[in-house]
Design goal:
- The protein has 214 residues and is an alpha/beta fold.
- The chain has eight helices and ten strands.
- α7 links the parallel β9 (150-155) and β10 (174-177).
- The longest helix has 17 residues, at 184-200.
Amino acid sequence: MTALRVAILGHGAVGGALAEHLLRLGHAVTVGADDDRRASAGELRSRLPGLGIASAEEAVGGADLVVLAVPFGAVEAVLTPLVPHLRDRILVDATNPVGPGLRHGLGDGRAGAEHVAGIAAGARVVKAFSVYGAENLARPAHPGAPLRPVMPIAGDDDAAKAVVSALVTAMGWRALDTGPLAQALNLEHMTLLWVRMVRMGGHPADLTWAALPA
């Protein structure tokens, strides 16, 4: 696919893993990090020399696609100042609202991705990169397996989902369109299941989902 300019908001385990993968595929990746986050972003760039670092506003303003990979509790503080710059941009929500006891942090009434879309009014929100731990995001899991691992996505904008699906496919997964953004609630429960199985249940960290071709 054509190289994209990708802005990543968040440079922890998930953001760093995605940055590594996208850079390896030839995309231009910039981490949005304001002054108080520049030092930690610099540590990531020392490991990924091709990584760009800019203010969140500059990174988003120059991007074809934006990935949100911050802790869910930081979503509102991160997105609110960027709302004018996110309008009409594809915003990939890789966050998960995790509450006490590994329950859904919004009480099952609403997807976290819908909360994100409510804050980032005018953005074209697609849920993706959310159902696995960071271990599976830097490189495709099980490259020799007969089936590609599935990366489920959800969103209300078909054109935005097509872009994300193409990116997901180029990254080594099988993109699985699960429907409208409200379906992200179910994907967020898939994440909780993965966490319970891997982080608490002793399953290997390269555990991934797959789907037989239709």
